[in-house]
Amino acid sequence: MKRKGLKLVEYEMWRYRYLVFFTISIIAAIFVLSSSQIRALISSAGTWGYVGAFIVGSFYTYSITSPPAAAVFFVLAQSINPFVAAALGGLGAMCGDLIIFKFIKTDILPEAKLLAHDLKIPKIKNHKLIHYINEAAPFIAGFFFAMPFLPDEMGATILGAIKYNTRKFLLISWLSNSAGLLLIALLGQLF
Fold first, then answer.
1. 124-147, pLDDT tens digit by residue?
2. Rounded to an integer, what distance in angstroms lies between the CA atom of residue 98 and that of residue 48?
3. Measured between alpha carbons, how far apart are the two ends of the chain, in Å?
4. Where are the domains of the chain?
């Protein structure tokens, strides 16, 4: 009898393992990415030219490092071609977004559905509403990707939740991040 109870606790504890690990990783990332050493790494990447644009772009993806990455990109773009820098930075950001998207789509989403089922959260059954959500999702996600003060994690979650096509996701992520970084780069050219 005791063993069954223990197995039930083990099962329940690991039932939402990805959600638990995801939450822990966010908390850990807040501490790690807010360190002065990481800020120094992002700042030093600004002196590496086009390679730095790619690296800074990959930091532009995560909500915690996005503001310092945008600031470094602003300065970086003053010394290199802003269009090439934005395209490379957008490519770096797209790689970061892809990691989030795959993790959400393959690991987090199934557990979130299980949790919603366990909590008896009703499914949306209105097909028109679902259609409008699916149609608007790429535009909403693209807005999240383009803006440095909005979390790319949210855009990746939106598209992961509707099981969006990976190739289309990559295109939206790259174009949106590149557009946001181009705006920052052009502002860097002006000031």
1. 788 888 889 889 999 999 999 998
2. 24
3. 72
4. 2-190
Burial 67-91 (b: 16+ CB within 10 A, else e): ebbbbbbbebbeeeebeebbbbbbb
pTM of the model as a whole: 0.75
C-alpha triplet 36, 79, 191: angle, nearest 5°: 85
Nearest to 181 by CA among 46, 95, 101, 71: 71
pLDDT tens for the 191 residues of the chain, in order: 444 544 444 455 566 666 676 677 667 666 665 677 766 766 676 678 899 899 889 988 887 778 878 888 888 877 889 999 999 999 999 999 998 898 888 887 887 788 788 888 888 788 888 889 889 999 999 999 998 878 888 899 899 888 899 999 999 999 999 999 999 999 988 87
- Whether residue 82 contacts residue 188, with contact meaning beta carbons closer than 8 Å, is answered with yes
Residue 181 CA to residue 187 CA, distance in Å, equals 10
Nearest to 42 by CA among 12, 25, 62, 19: 62
Tokens 């409008």 -> residue = 132
**Nearest to residue 76, comparing CAs of 62, 96, 64, 60?**
60
Q: Which two tokens stand for residue 161?
A: 């939740």
